[in-house]
């Protein structure tokens, strides 16, 4: 029965992997939205500063330059957060695939002939032994 026990343990690993993967993906989604919130808050603060600077004639070019810099930073942060999330998805898909391939292609059959042989000492490989506990 050891091959069947090993097979069942492999199936258990496959069944546990989606749970671990979903937890990892949930954390990745949380991190993505936190990054988006920080980027949006940065945008709001910068927009208020740029509007205040643009109210003066002298500050208008600096406001435009600052606004563009912040916009580029926000786009960069968004791309990095999305790339990180995509990498997490790919990693978890690979983990699930590996667990599935770890099961193997066929289930090992038990040696039913030896298991059904109830003889104790007939000399074949199925000789049962009493447990000395």
Could you provide a short overview of the structure?
With 133 residues, the protein is mostly helical. 77% of the residues lie in helices and 0% in strands.
What report would you give on this structure?
The chain is mainly α. The chain has one domain. It is 77% helix and 0% strand. Helix 1 runs antiparallel to helix 2. The two termini are 21 Å apart. The model has no long low-confidence stretch (mean pLDDT 81). Keywords: Membrane, Transmembrane, Transmembrane helix. Residues 114-133 are annotated as: Disordered. The chain crosses the membrane at residues 31-55, 62-82. Residues 114-123 have a biased composition (Low complexity).
Uncertain runs are: none
The total domain count is 1
Largest sheet, strands/sense/barrel: none
Helix content estimate = over 70%
Termini gap: 21 Å
Strand content: under 5%
Overall geometry comes to rod-shaped
Task: Determine the structural class based on helices, strands and strand pairing.
Answer: mainly alpha
Helical stretch tally = 3
The Cα radius of gyration reads: 31 Å
Order of helices and strands: HHH
Mean pLDDT: 81
The number of strands is 0
Topology (elements, then pairings):
Elements: H1 2-54, H2 60-103, H3 112-116
Key terms for this structure?
3 helices, single chain, 77% helix, mainly alpha, 133 residues
